[in-house]
């Protein structure tokens, strides 16, 4: 009979925390989304998990913290500490390739590269600057933004002229 | 305990109940699940003056909270659903910024208060927001023009505070920068669209700017009051924030076929607690549930 060697606690805790789904984009795990920064164990056996908020006002942050703690408790970790990490701030660039694939599969256009931060004032561009967001259903780039905001802070609304379907896009941040 | 059922349960409320074993009761209102800076290192560097830092956090937190409340008033009243969602989302970002700023303020002002104490249990005269954010919403043009002015100034200031010597305020500011960039873009697009739109939309946007112009100076002057000693270098200080703010406003208004009329400054000093008559009723509504049931938990 083959026995699987038990994983060290830290590795097991990391795996459990990484698999917690995001409350608002449940097709993604917290690891896919890049909000799980670190999971480690202290010498006294406490699991310390660090999360970073997506947006300042993200209402899902409390749920994420509670979900991670609950899953770790349920897996037998008695002492769990959840920390918030603000620096460096979260960016959509932290969404994993796997996360991007899952978003596309669920009809949500993944973000492009987040704008680079240059020195000096943040530039403001006026006028028609059309960003090419490919339709997650048919792949056409003949798409148009219908609203800068959508059901959650992290998404905008789009329409595809080729397949005529509306879709959501995770905004670059 | 090895309850795999519990591990598999995705129900948010169950998880919340289970996860909340640190003795913090949750209020029946607000989002007081836990400190928004939960687990952040709260040490204040020696070089930072705690009371000056607290004043900055309070002023910027109050601007954000009051602006957020005005934006929330658009819910069910916006001209289109898309704009309602946009205004609500912008308000939510500002509310999140306010929560973190209040939490930081409570850590450094010596009172050890939590965010809810600042939002719900202070009188109007204790608020330090500028008058611009407390003015009634008016029409869509007025709300959009205000959002442009506020987000332009706030972005100019917070992008500089991202380099400040308190690491927590710096991180809160850095986090806010992309959000404010998006708010400013949204407002700027609408100002151009309305200013360069129909005769009626142009007239309304012009009237909105005329009404708001007297409140711009307080905002720009308040930069100095807001950030005593925090912005030391001249190229990143008050004058730089003023120049950037006015420069961006000129850029947007020129594209919209408009300008910012020269008008005498309004007499209010919100940073000193001298507010318009509009703040008290706003706070009365915002604070009503918390004040009626101050110990309510669920």
Automatic annotation (TrEMBL), chain A:
Top-level division of the source organism's lineage: Bacteria
SUPFAM superfamilies found in the cross-reference section: Fe-S cluster assembly (FSCA) domain-like
Domain MIP18 family-like intervals: 19-73
A Pfam family: FeS_assembly_P
Domain PaaD zinc beta ribbon: 125-171
Gene3D superfamilies: Fe-S cluster assembly (FSCA)
Disordered: annotated span: 91-118
PANTHER family from the UniProt entry: 1,2-PHENYLACETYL-COA EPOXIDASE, SUBUNIT D-RELATED, FE-S PROTEIN MATURATION AUXILIARY FACTOR YITW
Protein name: Ring-1,2-phenylacetyl-CoA epoxidase subunit PaaD
From TrEMBL, chain B:
Signal peptide: none
One protein family per Pfam: PaaA_PaaC
GO biological process, one term: phenylacetate catabolic process
InterPro entries given in the database record: Aromatic_CoA_ox/epox, Ferritin-like, Ferritin-like_SF, PaaA_PaaC, PaaC
Tree of life domain: Bacteria
Organism: Actinacidiphila yanglinensis
Any single Gene Ontology cellular-component annotation: cytosol
UniProt protein name: Ring-1,2-phenylacetyl-CoA epoxidase subunit PaaC
